[in-house]
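Reminder to self: tokens first, then the designed residues, so the page reads top to bottom the way the pipeline ran.
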């Protein structure tokens, strides 16, 4: 059986060739989506401009693709401002480790460039696309905001907004301006909608597009229209921002820049992302030490050999080993990571031993995260949702 790869905001599935599941082919996605690879020269330029080593997600090619990132960097080098925009579709009470990837990175960008971040909670989107009540999605959004703030965002430079609770005239006006330039057939073909889908789904792209324009946030940017936006997200969200960029110039706005990450994979393997809709694929922000250990030991796909003798002789394959892949995302030291890789390839390190290291690293991350989260309250969230002026210059 053969099947083509599917990557869109709802589905992430690697190809199937002769019945074998394939890993997501990121090189192919660069070509298919027409985005640019992040090359070493660009990383060197970021390090030079910020006087700081780039984040491990950049060093390791986890953020691997972009649209017009150079333009943002040129602005920064000239001392001109920009802002960051990212978001969450609140469909569950707690977030999983995959969701943290863009937020961890966005927090690092905020700290490094000292810029405002706007975070959209698309409670409306989840109401349109899932069988959930709107009130439930709003509540999930407020609850998820605790997870988001625990990533370490600077409350003075962070605006969180719910589409249902925070809609105001500037936001809605931009939604109207955008909507006028997106035909129904463009929305249908970009997202694969059918005639039986609701008009809300076809229109939603305008709501996710609007925060890409600074005029949506007068309490932050006043009457300025010339402040560029950079959007960190996983590559599944790119279809939204392709359309946004197509519309931008037509409504007198600057095209947003985008930086895309690969997916934090499901425990079962590299052919799909960690997903909230498949419980056993995911490690959640609320999981205990014992649950993390149990999930990795039971489900994490291993690149090791079947028998001890064979493993010692031929070694393991870190490229398909989920425990190793998780370490690529969460182990900070490049030297330690390389040592583990070499020892696994040589057969010195066994699959069970690799899992043990992975459990330790993920547990440490989670315990630190959970401690930070326990210190954040609904009051902190509501403060970040207020439209008081922001001191960002
Ligand atoms: P949502 O809630 O599906 O996902 C939130 C963010 O997490 C990314 N993501 C992942 N990244 C790495 N590995 C994974 N396994 C993984 N799963 C999800 C998503 O790409 C996203 O960046 N419609 C959006 C919400 C949204 C948004 C935005 C996202 C509104 N405006 C602007 C990014 C930028 C959504 O439902 O995301």
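Designed residues (393 positions):
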């Amino acid at each position: 059986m053969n099947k083509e790869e599917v990557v869109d905001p709802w589905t992430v599935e690697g190809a199937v060739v002769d019945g074998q599941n394939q890993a997501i082919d990121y090189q192919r996605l660069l070509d298919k989506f027409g985005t640019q690879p992040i090359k070493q020269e660009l990383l060197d330029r970021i390090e030079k401009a910020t006087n700081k080593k780039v984040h491990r997600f950049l060093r390791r090619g986890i953020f691997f693709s972009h649209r017009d990132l150079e333009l943002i960097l040129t602005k920064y080098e000239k001392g001109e401002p920009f802002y960051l925009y990212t978001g969450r579709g609140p469909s569950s009470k707690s977030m999983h480790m995959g969701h943290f990837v863009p937020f961890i990175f966005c927090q690092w960008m905020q700290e490094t460039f000292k810029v405002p971040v706007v975070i959209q909670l698309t409670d409306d989107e989840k109401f349109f696309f899932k069988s959930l009540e709107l009130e439930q999605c709003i509540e999930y959004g407020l609850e998820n905001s605790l997870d988001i703030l625990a990533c370490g965002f600077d409350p003075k430079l962070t605006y969180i907004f719910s589409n249902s609770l925070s809609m105001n005239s500037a936001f809605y006006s931009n939604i109207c301006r955008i909507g006028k330039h997106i035909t129904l057939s463009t929305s249908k073909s970009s997202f694969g909608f059918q005639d039986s889908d609701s008009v809300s789904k076809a229109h939603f792209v305008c709501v996710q597009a609007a925060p890409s324009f600074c005029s949506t946030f007068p309490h932050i940017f006043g009457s300025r229209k010339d402040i560029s936006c950079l959007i960190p997200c996983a590559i599944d969200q790119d279809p939204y921002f392709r359309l946004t960029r197509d519309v931008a110039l037509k409504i007198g706005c600057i095209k947003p820049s985008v930086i895309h990450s690969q997916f934090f994979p499901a425990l079962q393997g590299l052919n799909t992302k960690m997903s909230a809709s498949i419980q056993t694929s995911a490690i959640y922000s609320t999981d205990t030490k014992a649950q993390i250990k149990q999930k990795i030991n039971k489900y994490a796909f291993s690149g090791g050999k079947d028998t001890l003798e064979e493993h010692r002789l031929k070694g393991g394959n870190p490229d398909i080993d989920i425990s190793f892949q998780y370490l690529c995302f969460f182990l900070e030291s490049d030297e330690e990571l390389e040592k583990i890789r070499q020892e696994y390839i040589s057969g010195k390190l066994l699959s069970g031993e690799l899992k043990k290291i992975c459990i330790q690293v993920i547990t440490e991350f989670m315990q630190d995260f959970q401690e930070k989260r326990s210190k954040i309250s609904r009051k902190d969230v509501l403060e970040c949702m207020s439209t008081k002026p922001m001191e960002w210059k």
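The first strand starts at residue 6 and ends at 7.
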